[in-house]
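Minutes, project check-in

Agenda point 3 was the complex the collaborators sent over. CS summarized: two entities, 389 residues total, and the question is how they sit relative to each other. Sequences were read into the notes so everyone works from the same version.
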Amino acid sequence: MTDPWHMLGPQGKSDRPVWLFAAGVASVLLALAIGSALSYTSIVVAQATVSISPSASLTLQGTNSDGTLTPDGSLTASLALRVDNPSSRVLRLQLLAFSGWIEDGPATVGLNESRRLQDDRLLDGNSTRYFYRVFGESREVAGAIVGAASAAIFRFTYTLTHALNPNRFEVARNITDYWASATGNATAGPWIHWLRVHLVIEGVPVASSPTAAPHLMTIGTIERMDGTNLAA
Amino acid sequence: MRLKLSERALRIARTALLSTFLGLAVGYTTFYSVFPNVTVPASEEPSLPLILGVLALAGLLAGLMTEDLRMGVVQGFLSIPAGLVIAFALAISPVLTGFLEVQVDDIFSFITRLGLPIYLFALPLYIVTGIAGMLLRERFGLHSESFFAARPNPQRK
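CS then shared the predicted structure for the full assembly.
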């Protein structure tokens, strides 16, 4: 009696097509695994090699003949941010936080005791230096792309006027007046800047679920900092 | 005697090959489940249908090429360490570029711990899909004629 379970009789047919199909599936799996390894490697390389080199400069507009700021003048910090990307991934600048402090000469020499309490401090050996934060801002950046294996320079300006922030502007005026009288140059006061940059690696989906593992939320971003954060 | 040794060697080679094939599926799905956003294809979070599909397809194909249940179970068990090794190799692949900043033993524990659900899930799935594959093999009367052919078991029809 023939076993009904055997459709093709006792001889059957070769399983060669199954082996060939399995070889195809194995090839696809191997290609996916190798592709994943290459993708992961490129992301790790990007996280390890991307560097930033910022340079900031300060200019005063609307000044008196002695270089001091007039009440309707303005103080502008210009930031040039160079991002070097040796990796094979395309990056997108997402977030930029920038702070700029000027040494508070009047507070340091004891001319303004009340500001000493508010200023940020920098320990310099046995002495304490007082710095006033003139700029402190973080902003979302759109359309700032750093190509693979290339560098890009982004320019940002931060402006302080009486209209934008009267209290801060008056303190900045007071400090620049001090440096103008002490050194003859209103911008001669030492500046400290700090910035933090968030770069997104393109093509890496970021987990949006609040229950996602922390590494899934951070693996696609690169954070770089530069300078001294006196507010920390 | 010589024929028996040769047959045994072929059976071992066949089992090793199929275990590696199953291990490749386990390794890839483990890496995918741990780092879904860096794999190919990339996604925000691991997709259960994709993991299930890859493991079930691999288990079914291995079953279609397996001639007895005992070897099918052995292959299922061997696929787990093979998969662990493959997932670990994928996770430390950036070492080749010299940029891996995490310790290798940390990565091993990471892959072992976070991949545990896949390892625990793959074994029964491989056994079930392997049996299904073997039943299909019987149903269509498939037999091996290649150099991997093992002598038919006299207890089986």
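Noted in discussion: Chain B has a mean pLDDT of 87.
Follow-up: revisit at the next meeting once the mutant set is ready.
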